[in-house]
Design goal:
4-stranded antiparallel sheet; 10 strands; Rieske Iron-sulfur Protein; 6-stranded antiparallel sheet; 2 domains
Length: 155
């Protein structure tokens, strides 16, 4: 009887240790690399997809630049990536502090930084042709929420 009870308690202790370990590792915070070059800016901007200036967003792969003061740092690019999914990216180059040359200029479905000629995908925000051995940031992405024929871009 004691052998059975001892075995039961050992199994229970083992399960408790495994479960506790799982909870400990599941609750640890995930580290993110905060871009030191770009400040946090708080904004919300509404895009009415029925307006003519946003007609390009009806088709996949056509970025639209929003240069309104207070929307992002240097503005925002919005891209229709398909299946009623839209993404928005900061128009300021992510790998140096904002300066007169640091706005991304779109060309098709990618954009190029005028300062260092790095090219970024406006579908994913990723740096294209990333140099080996260097840590470089991708474009800063903003939140997009859609409701009927409106998009809400916000941070």
């Amino acid at each position: 009887m004691n052998v059975i009870l001892d075995r039961f308690l050992m199994n229970k202790a083992f399960v408790l240790i495994i479960f506790s370990s799982f909870l400990f590792f599941a609750c640890t915070k995930t580290r993110t690399n905060r871009n030191p070059y770009l400040i946090e800016t708080s904004f919300e901007y509404q895009v009415n997809l029925n307006l003519p200036q946003f007609n390009a967003l009806q088709n996949i792969g056509n970025p639209v630049f929003i240069g309104t003061q207070g929307v992002g740092i240097k503005g925002v690019y919005i891209m229709n990536t398909g299946f009623d999914t839209f993404r928005a990216f900061e128009a300021s180059c992510p790998n140096h502090a904002p300066s007169p040359c640091s706005r991304i200029v779109a060309g098709g479905d990618s954009g190029t930084c005028q300062c260092d000629s790095y090219e970024y995908s406006l579908f994913t925000g990723q740096l294209l042709d990333r140099p080996d051995g260097e840590f470089l940031y991708d474009l800063l992405e903003y939140n997009v929420r859609s409701s009927a024929s409106n998009l809400y871009i916000y941070n």
